[in-house]
Amino acid sequence: MNKLTPLERSWVLYDVGNSAFVMMTSTIMPIFFKNLASAANVADHNSTAWWSYATAVCTLLVAILGPVLGGIADRRRWKKPLFTAFLLLGCLCCALLGAMGSWLAFLLVFILAKSGFSASLVFYDSMLPDVTDDSRVDMVSSKGYAWGYLGSCIPFVACLGLVLTAEQTGLGTARATAIAFVITALWWFLITVPLLRSYRQTHCDHSQREGAQNYLRRLWNTLKEIRGNKQVYLFLLGFFFYIDGVYTIIDMATSYGKDVGIGDTDLVLALLLTQVVAFPFSLLFGRLARRFRTENLLQVCIGGYFFVTIFALQLDKAWEFWFLAVCVAVFQGAIQALSRSCFTKIIPKDKAGEYFGFFDIFGKGASFFGAVLMGVSTQLFSTSKAGVVALALLFPLGLVLLRRSMAAGEKKTT
Hints:
Blueprint: H1 6-26, H2 28-39, H3 44-76, H4 79-96, H5 103-126, H6 128-131, H7 137-164, H8 166-169, H9 173-198, H10 212-228, H11 230-259, H12 264-288, H13 294-312, H14 318-346, H15 352-381, H16 385-413
């Protein structure tokens, strides 16, 4: 972290804060939810589907709101206030999750918490042009994910210790899990305080402020602008398909693991290992971006994820889930960080909020599509592996579109 400027360091810290919530959504939250659902006699494959649908609703909400709010933030310098509002929504609802006594109430509050988290990322990602420049953006973005993975282990280990020793301490699993949700929310907020204090929006769309009724027209014009920029348009399409698989694997790994018979302890500890392994590999890919094109490194990551999904089809042993977790860790941070920094370099800086709103539409839209695909396939065939087959096919499609975007960029510069 010592090579970062104070502002860059504050920005990176938000990844450290919100990654604790991401870790919980990938481990303890779905386990807690599935236990609530099981107690209400909901079948395992149906609870997996409901978890998929809840994730899909979150992403759809943010995909709809993201570009509108991003455009407002660009023109009115509202990135920081809007970021703060959604941060508080996410933290508050995260803290309240443990108080939900039914699986349906838990899902509803989870939707609000995850929506707050996802919406905050629209403004957080669009802060990147204000925080650093193009020559450092790959490094800063990669360090965000890297330190996020490692930093999230601190509250998670504390939360895991509470849950695993709940019976010995007399807390009980439900109460210990509720305390874990509060710890996560506090960590998420407190680690973000330096960014709230230091961030100032420098890039702004200086066109005349307009009434709310005109924002949709301006968004339509921006969408046409994106459609006319072949490099950006093809990148977003490729991003939609390959990140679909990435986000769905992150969201559904624990639920899928339970369905194929992996125990709760193995699931949680394997995903904790993912966070630790992802740290050095995120930094490694950030360093490699100094020597190799970002797009070429993204192709490597896409290929890696394709083979991960193929391997997951035959998964039925604990050691295989551990191996899969390590393989995912190698590429998980890199593919997200390099996608974010690559997009930052090819968009107009004064419209970063609006463009990242569309980036979020394609990313969260992919997550919506992947979660629904996983849920529907699971219910139709009564097995989670059916959805994995469909997800695997999306990575080659994303790779083809990314390569076409690269070709369009090269043609534009010649």
